[in-house]
Every structure is written in structure tokens, then in C-alpha cells.
Design a protein that fits this description.
single chain; mainly alpha; 6 helices; about 60% helix
Amino acid sequence: MPQTKRRRKTKHRGNAAGVIEARGRTGRKPTAAEKTGGARTAGARGAAGSQAARASRLDRPPTWKGAVLKSMLAAVAMILLGTLLTGKPKQMIPLFPIVLVFYIPLSYYTDAFLYKRRQRQKAKAAAERERGGATGRAGAAGRNGSATEGKAATEKAKAPAE
């Protein structure tokens, strides 16, 4: 005679309050395909994702809107710092527009300089890679000297003292 009570095939879900704490299967580790599916957070991206995000941010040209936002933040910080140090907020408030007018172009042109410098470095690295085998660094001697100067200095150091 067959069994009248069928055995349970899945785990009991929920706790005493009836709340299910984990979704899906909990008895095994997810496969690689299951891990990649779904929304990814900044922590899940890892170092490669954050480096890519940084590179993407640095490759955007500067804008006046960004310069205004940075300048407003800097001006507010300066006003707050000045107020804390002097204790006279009424004297610091008229400085806000003056500081803002000074900081906006300073911020924009600083960003523009850094952006242009990064674009030149990227173009130089791409040209060196095209020529063949460059590692993207400034050569064996480092940033300040050429590769031939670095070799000459190394040879001098290796030569016995006379």
C-alpha cells in the first residue's frame, strides 16, 4: 500500500513570525551566471569598475556648470570657516559673491589645464604603443630624464671608481 503522506521536497521557508528571510534557493552557492545577473552595486564592481569610472570621469571635458558648482561649494566652505574663526557671520556674508567671482574662472581653467594634460598623456601613450612595445611610462629614467640619460647614469654607477 502506498504512503498516504507525501514527503516535503523543499526546505521550510520563513521563521516564527512568518517572514521569509532569503529569496530563492539557499542550499547551494550561486553559479557564475547567477552571480552576474541582477543589479550591481558599486562594491560589487570591484577595483576594475571603479578605475573605469574614474577614467570616464577624467575624460569628460570641463564645463562652466561644474566650475560653478565647485566654486559654490568652496565659497560656502570658506564662509563657514571664516565664520568659525572670526565669530562674525555678518562680515563674512558680503565676501561670498567676491569669492564666487574669483573661484569660478579659477576652477574652470584649472580643470581645463588638467583635462588637456591628461589628453596629451593619453595621446603620447597611444603613439608609443603604436611605435612598438612601450609600457606607457616615460622611459627607463623616469619622468625627468630621457631613457638615454638613464642608461648613461646606470653605466657610470656600474663603472669602477678610478
